[in-house]
Amino acid sequence: MSNLELANEIDRRRIFGIISHPDAGKTTLTEKLLLHGGAIREAGTVSAQKNTKYAKSDWMEIEKKRGISVTSSVMQFEYDGKVISIMDTPGHNDFGEDTYRVLTSVDSAVMVIDAAKGIEMQTKKLFQVCKLRGIPIFTFINKLDRQAKDPLELIEELETVLGMNATATTWPIGSGLQFEGIYDILENEVQLYRKKEIIKLSEAGVFGSELEGLLHPDNLRELRDNMELLSGAGNEFDLKLIREGNLTPVFFGTALADFGVTTFLNHFLDMAPGPSVRKTTDGEVSPYGDTFTGFIFKIQANMNQAHRDRIAFLRICSGVFERGMEVTLSRTGKKMKLSQSTQLMANDRETIDKAYAGDVIGIYDSGNYQIGDTLVAGKEKIFFEPLPTFPPELFIRVMPVNSMKAKHFHKGVDQLAQEGAIQVYKTQYNEIILGAVGALQFEVFEYRLKNEYNSDIIVEPLDYSVARWIKIDNNENLSKYHNSRSMLVYDHFDRPLMLFANQYTLDRFAEKYEELKFVNALDVNREFGMGI
Ligand code: G4P
User: 453 and 344, same structural domain?
Assistant: First the structure.
C-alpha cells in the first residue's frame, strides 16, 4: 500500500462517542445513524435486541435479564465514503468508569439533549470528561416533535450550565404539534417535517418570500426574530474552534421520526476531525506514522460464555494492523502475536485481517493485557498518556461467604478489577473495599463473581462518597488519620487514599491535618509520578 493510499484510509475514519442523560434519545439516534450506514436493515433493532445481526451488546446474562446494556460496545459502518465507529456507552442511570474511559478513545463526541428538558445531570458529567480532553463536541437537540423549550434558551443553557460556546447549525421551526421543520443555516435551506420537502432559499434567507404561506405565520415570525437575534448576538461558525473543542455546533431534530438526522450526519462528517495525534510520555504519535501503535482502553471478560474469553479493545493510533503481526507490549517488553482479532459490532464479531489508525479492534486476551497498555510493532517501547482514573462515589466492603473459597474470590476480584469498571482497594487489615462510579457496577460485580468464579459474596455498603489520595512528605504511617468518619485504604499501586462521608467531612479533615496533601482521582497519576 502506498503512503497516499494509507493516508486516504486514515483520513476517512471517524470515531465518536454519544453522550446523553438516560432517555434523551441516544439509542434511537444511534439506531438511525446505523440505518443510514446500512449497518442495520430496519429501525428498532438496536433497542429491540431481536432478530438482527447487529443488535446492541447483550453478551452478558445480566444485560439480557434487565434489558439494558451494561457494557459499552463499538459499532462500525460506512457512509458517504467514511468509515465511522460509534462508541456506545450505557444509557441508563447507573453508569460506570467504563463509560468515562470509552471517551478517551474517541476523536469527537455527540451530545444528545432532550429539547424539553435541556441539560441534565449525566450529560453534564460526561461533558466534563470530553472537555477535559479537548474533544470536539457536537450537540443534537432531540424530540422536537414534542413540546420543547425555547431554542434560544437551550443554546443559552449550553453556555451557562456547561460553559461551552455554541453556534447554531440548524434551527427548529416550532415544536410539538406546531413543529414544521428545520432551517439549515449553513446550507440556507428549509426542510419541511411533514411534507418531507426541501426548500432552497434565496440570498435573503428566511427573510425572503419563499417561506410565506408555507409556514405558520407565528412560526415564520419567530424564525425570523431568532435569526435576527443570532446574527447579532450568536457565535459565528468557526471550524477551528469546533475542532479544538471550544465551540459546539448545535443541531435540532427528532431521532424517532428520523428527521434532521441525515443533515446532522452530513455536517458532522464534514466538521468532525479524523484520527488525532496522540500524546505519549515523551512525545507524540501521528496517525500517519509508519509504525503500528495502539492502546487498550477497555477489557471485557467472558463476552461469550461458551468460550470464556477476554477481549481487549484496542484503539489503533498509527500505522496498519495486520492479522498475525508481532507487537511489543510496552509495559512488560513481551512480544505478542496478534493472530486472533475481531472487528466489533456489539456482540457480533467478524475476524478482520487489516485495520488502520482510527479503527477500534478487539483482540483476544489470555490475561496479558491491562487497561492503558500500549502495543507497538517493532522493538521500540512507547507509552501513551495514562488513562485517567475517575472519582468513585460509591463504596462497599466485600468478603466471600465461604472462606474456603477465598482463592476463587481473590482471583475473581483481581480479574474483574483489571477490566477497570470498579476500583479495588485494601484496608490495612487486607479487607477488600470496592469503589465505583455507579451502583450497577457492584451488582454486575456480584453477579459475575457468582457466575464466573463460583464465589458468593457478602456485601456491606459503606457510608462514604468522596475519595482523596494522600500525599505526605515523609514516609509517615498514615494509620493515625483513620477515624470513625474517614477510612484509610490503599489502591492497587499501594498508594494511600482516604474515604470521606461527604465534601464537608473532607473539608473539616483537611483543615485539621494541614500537613496532608489531597489528590483528586483525575490527578493521581501525575501527582504520584506515574506518567503525565
Ligand atoms: P436513551 O438511549 O438516551 O436512554 O434513549 P432512547 O433512545 O432509548 O429513547 C428514550 C425514549 O424516548 C424512547 O421511548 C424513545 O422512543 C423516545 N424518543 C427518542 N427520540 C425521540 C424523538 O425524537 N421524539 C419522541 N417523541 N420520542 C423520542 P420509550 O417509550 O421509553 O421507549 P420505546 O418503547 O419507544 O422504545
Answer: no
The tally of domains found in the chain comes to 3
| Residue 79: domain span | 3-271
In a domain, 384, yes or no: no
Q: Is 21 in the pocket of ligand 1 (CB under 6 A)?
A: no
Amino acid found at 306? A
Same domain (yes/no): 296, 157? no
Residues 20 and 127 in one domain: yes
* Nearest CA residue ID for atom 19, ligand 1: 25
Q: Which of 256, 261, 264 to mutate to test the pocket of ligand 1 (most atoms within 8 A of CB)?
A: 256
Cα separation values, 280 from 293, 331, 374, 380, Å: 11, 13, 10, 13
d(CA 131, CA 129): 5
Same domain? For 222 and 285 the reply is no
In a domain, 386, yes or no: no
Q: Ligand 1: which atom is nearest the Cα of residue 259?
A: 23
Cell reading at 165: 460556546
| Digitized pLDDT (tens) for each residue of the chain, 532 residues in all | 788 899 999 999 999 999 888 889 988 898 888 888 765 533 333 333 333 333 333 334 544 444 434 344 677 888 999 999 888 765 555 556 777 778 888 999 999 999 999 999 888 878 888 888 889 999 999 999 999 999 999 999 999 999 999 999 999 999 999 999 999 999 999 999 998 899 999 999 999 999 999 999 999 999 999 999 999 889 999 999 999 999 999 999 999 999 999 999 999 999 999 999 998 888 899 999 989 999 998 887 655 555 556 778 899 999 999 988 999 999 889 999 887 655 554 344 566 788 999 998 888 887 788 888 999 998 788 888 777 677 788 999 999 998 888 888 999 898 878 777 788 999 988 999 999 887 777 888 888 888 888 899 999 999 999 999 998 766 677 877 877 788 999 988 888 999 999 999 999 999 998 888 898 877 777 677 654 3
Residue with cell 483525575: 522
> Can you tell me whether residue 487 is helix, strand or coil?
strand
Same domain for 431 and 292:
no
Tell me how far the alpha carbon of residue 24 lies from the centroid of ligand 1, in angstroms: 7
Cell of 339: 493472530
Residue that terminates a domain, selected from 346, 376, 406: 376
The DSSP output letter for 151 is H
Q: Which residue, by CA, sits nearest to atom 17 of ligand 1? A: 25
Per the CB < 8 A criterion, the answer to whether 357 and 346 are in contact is no
Among 218, 239, 271, give the residue marking a domain's end: 271
343 with 205, same domain?
A: no
Judge residue 291's burial from the number of C-beta atoms within 10 Å of its C-beta, 0-12 exposed, 13-18 middle, 19 or more buried.
Answer: middle
